[in-house]
Structure formats: structure tokens, C-alpha cells
Amino acid sequence: MRRVRKSVFFFIAATILGSFWLSFSGIHKKWGDVLITYINGACDLRYGIDVGGGIDATLKPRPGEKPSAKDMLAVETILKQRLLDKNITDGNVYTDCSQNKVIVQVPYEKLDEDCDTETIVEKLAKKAMITFREKNEQDENGKPKGDTLSNVVITGADITEAKLSVHEKEIGVILKLSEEGAKKFREATDKLSSKNEQLSMWIDDTFDRPIGAGNVMTEGLLGIGVENIETARDLVDMMNEEPLPFGLVFENASEMEPSLGPNALETTLVTMLALLALTAILMILRYKVPGMVCVLAMIGQIALFLAVLTGFFPSLNGLALTLPVIIGIVVSLGIGMDSSIASFERIKKELADGKTIKGAVDSGLKSGKMGALVGNTLILIVATVAMGCFGPQLGVLGRIFQPMLKFFDLTAASTSGTIYSFGYIMLFGAISNMLLGVGASSLMLKSLARFKALKNPRLYGGKEDAK
After folding, report:
1. pLDDT at 1
2. Which residues contact 349 (CB under 8 A, 6 or more apart)?
3. pTM attached to this predicted model
């Protein structure tokens, strides 16, 4: 067995417990009435409609718009994709073609805060037609007029990709322009700069912000300064999304009870915590020292799941806690526990056959490692395919799998968000099983096996007369 220092156990255990505390409590600081979040914690969790409820909003076309049945179907598809792009995996979109209405169901952003329903839904339902125009001439209604109306320099079609940029205290959006778009932008800025004028950016014929000259770099990148991280995220989403075929306006909304019942959240969390506590007690009672190591690894996995759900850093998107996600967490922990039990049972057998504690631990861990590797590799493959086929089209996996689906003329099912969220959490479950359930557990157990006070085979599930 490779020699592992005694201090390794304390280092890994402290790292796991510290990570759990950090992911659970987060780091927040209050400046006056403003709460600044540096690390997201459990209080920043978002809950799905099934366990936390949400809002049911009705939208209708803008006055004067006369959408066709094909346009209504396109709106439903685009809005579903926008929900996925915002990591809202349990939102629903329905269309009523007879009355030209769109029903959108989304979870609350936070359960303990007042929810500005109209603002949330209108953000989602923006037509998102981006244009960069000359000057900034507006009529009495704020619409473009004169040279601004007639001289559109580039549109959203000229933007190939938009990314969030956070550098020290500066927040911005980086746009990658097509070769033709970059050329048109340079020509327009050169012409306007000589007149001491500049471009303006418009969203759905509404002025958004001025755009200074000289922002296009040699690689065809355009940098836009943004006030805060939330505005930057919304802007990136709009730049990357497909625009709606017609504009939508908010009509009315109502609150939705959790689909699993009024006390679904409390019941689900209490049941899950009780199950984890019972499992931890049984593991320690049966396997003693290896069981304690397994419980520590499980705490580390829970810390990783919390970080994934909350987003950990405010600039990252978290995942809403829904029933499929909870099931994915339980299944992942169960798979990791099963691999550990196989190793611990082998350790007991080796001790019964007369091996030393070091030899039994080495043999047991080695036998369980291959099974865990194969099982979690298969889960990684399935989770990757599920995320690529049913997840955001603009994600890394979406860019790989979506062209394949379109080639075979396939579209994602209405349950795409549910499948994506389950695959998402299973992906991190498999990673955590390998890092903590196999890697960290092996190092901790080998480290503990070197302590003289822990040389008793009974502490590893063996019998007193074993060596």
C-alpha cells in the first residue's frame, strides 16, 4: 500500500467540513440597506414550481400584431428554450392559438422576497430585436426617428456570440461580431467620430445605451460597459437568443401553489435529511471507521451539490431545486454509497481471512475502485447526452448535440427541462463520487490505518482475533 501520511485525514476532513460550511452559509456583507453576496449559500437557493410554487402569467401580442399559427408555435419553442437558457428547468409554456395568448408558468426567484411578476415575465417575453443605429434621435414616444430610424448599422444577426466579462470591479459584455458586422461597425464609427457623434444600441425599438467609437478590436470583438451583473446577464441572454417573431405584452398573472402540495418543500427537505441521517448512522454502526470516512465523503458531496444548486459565485447560474433534482441527488449518493459498501465488505472479508489492517484496507479499496470507475463513467456518458440533447442550445454540449438533432429533424420533448436538470445533477454526482467517494475516501482510510489507536480490526468491521 502506498504510504499516506497521518495528517492527510485531518487535511481532507477539514477541507470537506470547511467547504460544507461555506456552501451552506455563503458569504454576505451588508452595506447600509444593500446586501452584497460574494459566495452564494443555502439562503440563495431557487425552488422549482413543484416544491416552491410560482406564477402563472398570460401574455398577448402587441397591439397591431396578427400572428399566424406558425408564429405562435415558434414563440412557444423559443420561450421554452429561453427558460432553459436561464436554468429554469421546470417552467411551462402553452399557447392558445384561438385567442392568440401565451401562458407562461415560472417559479419564484426567491420565496422570501416580493416577486415583481410583471418584470420577470416581460424580461422573458421580450422580442429581443437588437439593433445598433447611427446617432440617437427619438420621437415623443422614445422611438427612433430621422437618421437613427433609417441608418441601422448592424443587427443581432451580425452578433455571433455574447459573453459576460467581469474584470476586477468592471462588468461588461463582450460581443463577437461577424466579419461583415465588424466592417460595418468600423465604417460607421469612423464616419460619426469625425462629426463628434456616436452610435446607439436599441432593443425592440427602445433606446438602451450609447455606444462609443473605437470599441471593435482586431478580432472583431465589441466591449459594452454594463451597470451591474444582473443587467449584464440579461443582455447576454438577449444577444444570444433567437428573437421572437412578434412582440408580447403582459396581460395578467396569478400565483401558483406548489404542484406537490402546500407543504411540499418542508416535507421534502425533512424527509431527505432524515434519510441521510439514518443512512449515516447505519454506516457508522456497521463499518465503524470506514463508515465514518464514508459519511465525511457524503458531506463533501452534499457541499458540492449545494454549490451547483446555488451557483456558488454570483456570476454563475445555479439550478432550481426540483423533484427530479432531489431524486438525482439521492440516486448519486446511493450509487456512491453502494461502491463504498462493496469496498468495506471486502475489507471485512480480508480481515476474516487473517490479513493485516493495512493489507485488508489496500485490497478492499483496490477491488471497489474499478467497479466505481466503470459505473460512474457510464453515468457521465448518459448525463452528457441528456444535457446535450435536452439542454440550452448555446451551451458547450448543446453546440455539439443540437446540430445532430437538427440533421435528423428531431426536436426536444416537452419534458426537456426535467431531463436536462436530472442529467445535470447526475453529471456532478458522478464527478463527486469519483473525487470524494473514491479518491478522498481512499486517502482518508489509508491515513487512519496508520494510527496505532485504530489498529483494532473491530474498528473496521472485523473480529478481535484478526491481525
Report:
1. 45
2. none
3. 0.77
